[in-house]
Amino acid sequence: MTKLTEESITAESLETRNNSCQGIETTAKLLVPLNSSAMNFARTLSSSLNGTELSFDVVLAKIAPTLFLALSTIPYLSHASYVGVDGLLFSLYKDGDQMLVVFSNTSSPLHWYTQPVNRDNGKLYGQAVSAEPVATRNATWFQQTLNSTSGYSWLGKTWSKAQDSLFLSAVAMDGRGVISLGLPATVVIEHFAALDFHDGDFHLATNDGDVIVQTKLPDTQIMVSNNTVLVQMVDPKGDPTDHVGYFSCESDDGGSKHFDGAVSGMKYTFYCSTIQIAGVQMV
């Protein structure tokens, strides 16, 4: 009887874990990379421009409406940008109920502006005010995108004051600039929050360590670096107090890896695997 009970518990535990893993994989596949959409818009723009020399007036007349179309039609999208190798910039983004634009109408990296945008027609209105410039042309993502035929995806930040995380995908446009589209991290969080982990815990981070979904295990810190995970106990100040485990999440067969560890006197089995969400490598 005891053996049958143990086998039943083991089988139920395995089924629960498999269901959770399947739910994670299915949810990740729903959040597809934006590269294909960005590439389609870049091709459309390239054909429309047909070698036209890009001035800011051309950006306003040709590129801005396409970015507005992307922002208005692609589900969950909150960011659509054009960044030129010459320094011209036009970046539409949503901030709550508002739509705004950050732009630079000169090649100078010091002159950026922000202005409200009509959500119904994409037209700028109101007064443009100076904005704090951010390095773009020399940024890693910009150079990576220009040198790639398939685009580049990464986790960045919104233009808004909140500086929320953003899943970004970018593609080159004729070597003259880059088109990028962004999905707010809150969308990813909400998708995974809808999953049932059967009283289990869930932690999600990029392979560089940026946390998207934080573990709810008490007094526990999970740190990710280069697909390797460190689990440790921490005090109320966040200082480490005890080592729980350190292991790689990379698997030869693409499956999950696991180890057993104790947190606050309770034994847990930690499962870890690598997945791709909106084109960004995650753990």
Describe this structure in words.
With 283 residues, this protein is an alpha+beta fold. The chain has two domains: 35-187, Beta-Lactamase, CATH 3.30.450; 202-283, no CATH class. Helices cover 28% and strands 35% of the residues. The chain has five helices and 17 strands. The chain has helices at residues 2-30, 35-49, 56-73, 140-146, 185-193, and strands at 79-84, 89-95, 98-104, 112-117, 129-131, 152-157, 165-173, 177-184, 204-205, 211-213, 220-225, 228-234, 240-248, 257-263, 266-272, 275-277, 280-282. The strands form five sheets. The chain has an eight-stranded antiparallel β-sheet, sandwiched between helices. It has a three-stranded antiparallel β-sheet with strand order 11-12-13, with no helix packed on it. A two-stranded antiparallel ribbon has the order 9-10. α2 (35-49) packs antiparallel against α3 (56-73). The longest helix is centred in the N-terminal third of the chain and has 29 residues, at 2-30. The radius of gyration is 23 Å and the shape is elongated. The mean pLDDT is 85.
The spatial strand order of the largest sheet comes to 5-4-3-2-1-8-7-6
Strand content: 25-35%
The helix-and-strand class reads alpha+beta
For the record, the CATH class of the largest domain is Alpha Beta
Helix content: 25-40%
What value does the Rg take, in angstroms?
Answer: 23 Å
CATH architectural label of the largest domain: 2-Layer Sandwich
Number of strands: 17
Cα shape: elongated
Overall mean pLDDT: 85
CATH topology of the largest domain: Beta-Lactamase
Number of distinct helices: 5
Q: What is the straight-line distance between the termini?
A: 40 Å
Unreliable spans? none
Number of domains: 2
H/E element order: HHHEEEEEHEEEHEEEEEEEEE
Q: Strand count, sense and closure of the main sheet?
A: 8 strands, antiparallel
